[in-house]
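User: Structure please.
Assistant: Input sequence and predicted structure:
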Amino acid sequence: MLALGIVVLVLAASVAVLLYQGAALWLAAQMESLGPGAAGPADRPTVAVVIAARNEEIDLPATLDGLLEQSYGPLEIVVVDGGSTDRTREVIDARAPQVRRIDEPPLPPGWVGKNWGCAIGADATRSEWILFLDADVRLHPDAVAAMMDRARATESDLLTLAPKVEMVGVWERVVLPFMVQLILLYFRAPRMSRPNSRAALVNGQCYLVRRAVYASVGGHRAIRGYVLEDIALARNLKAAGARMRLAWAPGLATTRMYRDRHEMFEGLLKNIHGLRYSTARQAGFLAGLIGFYYLPLLVLPLGLAAGNLPLIGMGGFLWIALFGKHVAFARAVGAPAAYGLLYPVAAGFYAALLTASLVDGHRGRPVRWKGRWYARSPDPAPERPAETPANR
């Protein structure tokens, strides 16, 4: 028979688990949404679209065609090719002169490839606003108009979208709904839109930023060595007092992030590395993952083995609540609801990612992404640009 103290401790921990996991639903319900709407004022600012592309011949055609069909325009569209070895250049050139290709200069020491491409693209444009877009994000014809109208209506300096994520393969459907929950919980995503909140999140897949504000914090040059460049930029902008908004926009933007399990593992491992590698942080995340997503499922068998009715009741409720929550979340983000029942597999995938990060970090292995390798040592602190007439 279990001691009363152990029973009370398990019950208290179970309540904490319910509150923590339930917070993902609470945060999701607070997400601002954005969809196609009526046309805004006629005096619209100019917009440049910057895409950093490397071996994107599969996804880039649909992305560029979507940009050429935008109701907002004309757009200044620049694609910076990062030394692609496939047909990416031909894809871009086939849409000239509406789309301009820039061949990326050799990657300087200390730079992450995407940051270098974005910086080159931003320097090559002159519009009042810049839309940074990933090569695999397809936009609704009214997407740019809707983004600009919302940004102006809310007097925002930056507006970023959470797109619909296409999930085709089994691993995508298992892991990506879980990933969305972790992002909501870790970054407290909806709070980013509150001026007095310290939450800072930019989705690097799609964000519209006022050029003057982007330049005032040094743009991508100030975060040149960061693998998670979007979060580093968000923190710089937040610290500078920029007004930022995040909107859930499945009707405006669609992306398929990863096409197989290996690509997803590499991409998420790069993200898990974070702004700076920390063994203590990664170990803490791993312990939290086990504590919040695996141990709660042991309360029911523990109660049954001990014949303890309170634990049996709480354990049964945990199974129903947790699996039900993950089923609902999978359905909400576009995966078949039944995949939510496999959330322990998704948690196991993340446990494998964290373990790999710990092993690689301990051995000093670099981070691999898009065929390039980046040092796993702590990234440099963001650099503020020297004051010049251009950013004064």
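The first strand starts at residue 32 and ends at 33.
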